[in-house]
Amino acid sequence: MGKIKGFLEYERAVPADRPPLERIKDWREFHEEMPEEELGEQGARCMDCGTPYCHTGFMLSGMTSGCPIHNLIPEWNDYVYRGFWREAYERLMKTNNFPEFTGRVCPAPCEGSCVLGIIEPAVTIKNIECAIIEHAFEQGWVEPKRVAVRSGKKVAVVGSGPAGLACADQLNRAGHKVTVFERDDRAGGLLMYGIPNMKLDKEAVVGRRIGLMEQEGVAFRLGTEVGRDYPASKLLAEFDAVVLCTGATKPRDLDVPGRKSRGVHFAMDFLRSSTRAVLDGAAPGISARDKNVIVIGGGDTGTDCVATSIRQGCKSVIQLEIMLKPPLEREENNPWPEWPRTLKVDYGQEEAAALQGEDPRRYSMMTMKLLSDGHGILTGVEVCRVEWKKKEDRYVPHPVSGTEEVIPADMVLLAMGFLGPEERLLQELQVEQDERSNISAPYGDFRTSCAKVFASGDARRGQSLIVWAINEGRLAAREVDRYLMGFTNLP
User: Is the pLDDT confidence value at 1 over 70?
Assistant: First the structure.
């Protein structure tokens, strides 16, 4: 695959991003495009490794190694190198319903397990994937696929995030009449309101795919929350099967004194407010303008909060992380093909550093208290440093005495992850939950304790990656199709 010695001839390269101080002035996507000739060189770096780990997609030491949707990566790398873009597109679409999403927002566990990554920087898989699908759209190859024969079966998919969309797309192709229920005013779930526009354009990218699905026959019922606006009993009565893809939307809270101070918000509330304002051309309901912002938590959500705060015109932004600062290189306890636990500077941190002169992240910091004035308005955050010490079989943080300090703050954004799905609908359906409060439905079968109700994505497995959501949506569609028809031809 690729050029036999391409990995020796070409260095890893990715598309240039728009300069940080330029892109923070707008909400447009910040990645530039790479010329086809250079993309071909990057495809040539795929080294014909014999046993590729890039598309394995399994859990290793609690982390994802390789691509969970098993993209045929070496094959389309080779096609791009040779200039066979149509063939690359066709191979890509065999495993991935939405490469325009994963090519932008997936953290690329495929690159973390790339064999070339053992000795050299990994192949730029994510960028090539995005380039293939965008080239296909430009050439007009991506067209609505009309379903010739309908099965007469009706399926409801609750939730329009990546798991719900993948499940709906597959079931529609199988000939079933699919209706997707979404409580927000726009389809896409976290793709629409959980990821900022500068990372994933809502109209040009998300809306484009939703429009295609509608043309292919998928129906979307927006502004409809099942269990509140639409009774669960009615759902069971009107559909032959139901798939719950509601996500893990219950945020982890911060249990410290002063939590109820005005100016403290969950990250998703802030990001949702911002994106809705961008799309509607209105002022955001939660704004960071002229405020000293502290983001508590890391990960993609924390980064998105940093970047959004900057674009809204915050006075300053600091990101607090309780974890240790990652090393620059893999350590011995983090061997290939595990996901590399190394220091990464994402777009939000790059922008903050360009604007403020330093990385906004402060590691090994624990929040002790949120401070407020006499009227309950947030004024600051009391923090201290922590040391991680082993207790039995795990490490736990211990406050370091004498390191306490107060950081002024007008806004605190809690980006500490999610605890599981919201439970109102689950209780109405009497769906069993596991010990982590996720929907209890075995992987590979996806059936819940409620007859003809299935579950997939974060609602079933807990907070995870977009590629796992697509994986589960596709596999759940297979099992729903098998349940309805007695067999399945879905991939």
Answer: no
pLDDT digits (tens, 9 = 90+) for 399-413: 999 999 999 999 999
pLDDT in tens, 100-148: 999 999 999 999 999 999 999 999 999 999 999 999 999 999 999 989 8
For the chain, give the secondary structure using H, E and C: CCCCCHHHHCCCCCCCECCHHHHCCCCCCCECCCCHHHHHHHHHCCCCCCCCCCCCCEEECCEEECCCCCCCHHHHHHHHHHCCHHHHHHHHHCCCCCHHHHHHHCCCHHHHCCHHHHCCCCCCHHHHHHHHHHHHHHHCCCCCCCCCCCCCCEEEEECCCHHHHHHHHHHHHCCCEEEEEECCCCCCCHHHHCCCCCCCCHHHHHHHHHHHHHHCCCEEEECCCECCCECHHHHHHHCCEEEECCCCCEECCCCCCCCCCECEEEHHHHHHHHHHHHHHCCCCCCCCCCCEEEEECCHHHHHHHHHHHHHHCCCEEEEECCCCCCCCCCCCCCCCCCCCCCCCCCHHHHHHHHHHCCCCEECCEEEEEEEECCCCEEEEEEEEEEEEEEECCEEEEEECCCCCEEEECCEEEECCCEEECCCHHHHHHCCCECCCCCECCCCCCCECCCCCEEECCHHHHCCCCHHHHHHHHHHHHHHHHHHHHCCCCCC
CATH of region 6-139: 1.10.1060.10
pLDDT at 124: 97
Predicted structure pTM score = 0.96
pLDDT of residue 50: 85
Do the two domains 154-249+419-485 and 253-416 of this chain adopt the same fold?
yes
Q: Which CATH number is correct for 154-249+419-485, 3.40.50.740, 2.160.10.10, 3.50.50.60, 3.90.1720.10?
A: 3.50.50.60
